[in-house]
Fold this protein.
Amino acid sequence: MVDLLSLVPDPARAALAQWLEARGEPAYRARQILPRLWQRPVGSWDEATELPATLRRALAQTLPLRRLPLSTRQVSRDGTEKYLWDLGDGEAVESVLIPEGKRRTLCISSQVGCALGCVFCATGRMGFRRNLSVAEIVCQVREVMLLDAALKPTNVVFMGMGEPLLNWDAVDGALTILNHAEGLGIGARHVTVSTVGILPNLAKLAQRPEQFRLALSLHAPTSELRHELMPIERKYTLPAVIAALARFRRRVTLEYVLIGGRNDALEQADQLAQLARPLGALVNLLPLHPGGAPDLSPSPRAQMLAFERRLRRQGVEAVLRRSRGLDISAACGQLRVELEARRKVRTEEHARIE
Ligand code: SF4
């Protein structure tokens, strides 16, 4: 059985044309069916009422539309929405929708869990479970549109669970569907891949002709400190990653989570400025999400502002982001980690009762 949602638009069109021809259906039906995958999605073929009922039934039987059932939806007081999607095999991943003026940014996941174990990250503590498929990645956007077409994201960031460049084949296909005019049609400049710097696949991303944006999770201005916070530093060192960014030919963003007493000193801002300035990089300063890592504390607000000023004084464009969705555990991996904790409590309660 062909899963049209797992195919990028050209092969999807070809597979559909072949299917229509084999059934003796007119070729123009493809132009009615294809927009129902991504542009004007339907939850099931039954809803595509512009098609004859017999055709809808045949589509449902042989080309069913894969769904990601919503298992939890949380809406924060600041408008941030968080979704936990059921993958149907006992696993679940999450996405976070962040509205800001006319912009709606959806933060999507690329893996269940993550092998990289950054100390400030809830997903890292889960460990790695499995990669997501192309359809499981892009259907996070599709499912949000099915909840409410008005929620269609204007921007997509690969900043949810997982390291996207460790699932390159699926992320590569997902980028095509996100951007393609017959896919979701989101401009490449509105799609950001956030990575710790997996160098071989960073080179593959750089080879793509579209202007997808790149964000590097830096979080430390020296190799020594990065080593303590992010074990990947052993494999892809800070100098090697910075050299790769210099070759990237596009403006990059450096992500820097401010952790109280670890990476928020003004001397560290100076070291960060020395890395960011030659790259012409934008620095995104992110408050540590309180639930993301119980053993670390966020940097005090005054220190975060001083850190931001120090960067700016050295000619670095720096933006201190607000922590969003504080009341709904919106840091990556938190909802999933909480769900597991609840499940564990329930299991332990069962065991006691039995
Ligand atoms: S911050 Fe990203 S790369 Fe690091 S453990 Fe979390 S999900 Fe993985």
User: Anything to note?
Assistant: The domain at 70-341 is CATH 3.20.20.70 (TIM Barrel). Confidence is low (pLDDT under 50) at residues 342-354. The chain has two domains: 4-62, 70-341. The CA atoms of residues 150 and 299 lie 36 Å apart.
